[in-house]
Each structure stands twice: as structure tokens, then as C-alpha cells.
Amino acid sequence: WSPDGQLLASAGKDKVLRIWRYDTKSNSLSDFQVVTDMHQRSIRSIAFSPDNLMLACASFDGSVSILQRSNKSSLFHLLTKIKGHTSEVKYVAFNNDGTLLATCGRDKTVWVWEYDEDIQEFSTLAVCNGHNQDVKCVQFSPSGSHLVSTSYDNSIITWCSMNMDDYERVNQFRHHDNIVWQVDFEKNGEYMGSVSQDGTLKVYKFILNQGSESKDMFHDDSIPFTYGEVFTSQKDSPSLPIYSLSFSPSKELLIATGGATSNLDIYYSKTNAKSLTKELSFANAHDGDINRVAFHPSDACVLATCSDDETVKLWKLSL
User: Fold this and answer.
1) What DSSP designation does 268 have?
2) Model's pTM, two decimal places?
């Protein structure tokens, strides 16, 4: 979704970027723009900038395309391509003010790029090394104060810019038993969630460091914050991978997940509760693995999903 909720973008193995216009009254999508010939291999991840005027596409061909438009009614055009990763780029994300872009990939690295509006170019700010296998996802916290990455090495790393021109690893934890596919943040940054090949959804609470110690995390008095695990979903039987999650924009914790079961699941937790309840489950929501779920940025009842079955679906929840 674009941050204003007016556009939805999708892409995949066909190397085509499709941008859809969302109609709130009919809860439907219509064609806005189709962009081809940008990449030689699959487009793996898409991210809109906070001002809705820029769109980044990460590809398995090792590059990231940056598209731009002059206003919200105009079409996007290719601004530039950025290259740095030595192999597949698997995820891309903007920070909260659009000045930074983060990417990650098969080369086990996380890159942070800085955008110079005057010359309209991205330059390398930092290259983060800490994972020992493919990095699957990277996200900035809602405040932009730190960066989180997940990996095939079963871990989540938080990175913080300590001196404004580099990012350092502040902690690394392994609460999952297998690949961590994605992380997402609750809109205020108080909670973070992760999903994994091990079939679980885990939710963590942001904790300012008070000098305490944790056996699961790198944590000392010089580290400004950490995340403490709050609760874990129960595994389905049989346990299959969960590939994606999304926090709703509602005040309470409402989380959608999708994965190899082809089910769309909605979890709920009351504020300050210590457990997750599966409120809704749409069996066989797609005819293949669900690769991404995403709540509308302002409507807690609208949700988009995409799948290996080559479809994008919109859902209107009754809660």
C-alpha cells in the first residue's frame, strides 16, 4: 500500500510492476499503471516512500529500481537504479521521512542508502554485516530510530545509527527455531512481530534498557533498547511456514498472517494482554502459498493478500 492508502502495488516472477488504484466506496482495485522492462529477474519486494511520490523495487537480478512521480495524480517514471549487493536483493524499505532506504539480500548483508533530494541520487550510508546466511527482510522502526533484519540463520538483528553515518548491531536474538521470514511493527513502534518457517507468530515489546540482562539477547548498559518476547501463537497441526504478517492500524493488537497453509489468519490481543487469540481464519484463501499480507494503512478492516496462485485479493473484515 502507498502510505495514503490510495494505491496498491504488486510484482513477481513476471518482472512486471502493477500499480492499482483503490476505491474505498466499492472496496475494489482498478488499473493505475503497469511498468515493464525494469528487471531481468523476479521483483521480490516493493516499498512506497512516506510522501507517496517514490516507489522502490528490489529484484533477484541484484538491483533496486527507484521510480518517482511529480504529484499524486501523475504516473511513475524510472528515476535511477542502485546496485551494491552481489546477488539477489530480497527486501526494500524506506524510513519514516524517506531520507533513507534499506535493502537486504542473499549476500548476507543489509545496506542503508541515503537520498540526496538536490541531485536525486542514492548513496551508500552503511553496509551491515552480522547474519551468516541470506537476509530475508529489513524494516525501519516507525520512529526511524533503528533498523531490524531477519535471516535464514533463524535470527533477528536490530541495528542502530550510533554516529549518524554508520549502523551498528545492538542486539541479536533467536526466538524462532527456523528461518525468520518477516518482521513488522505496530504503528506506534511499541510492538514488533515476526513469523517463521517454524510455523509461529511471535510478538515482542520494545523495552528501554535499564541495565538488565537477558540470556537470549546481546544486552549491556551501553545498548539503548531491546525487545522482550511477549507472546507466541500456537502452532497449527501440521505446522507449516508463515511467510508474512501485518499489524492493523487499529489501537489494539490485530495481526494478519499468511503462509504455506494458504489460510489467512487474524490474531487479536487486548492491550497489555499476554496471549494471542486467533479471531478469524479464512481457509484456502488462495490456491497457493500466501506470500504477503498487508493491512490498509488507515482502515483496520481492509486487507490485501498476494499468492503463488498469481492473484491479488482484497478482504473486508467484520470485527
Assistant:
1) E
2) 0.91
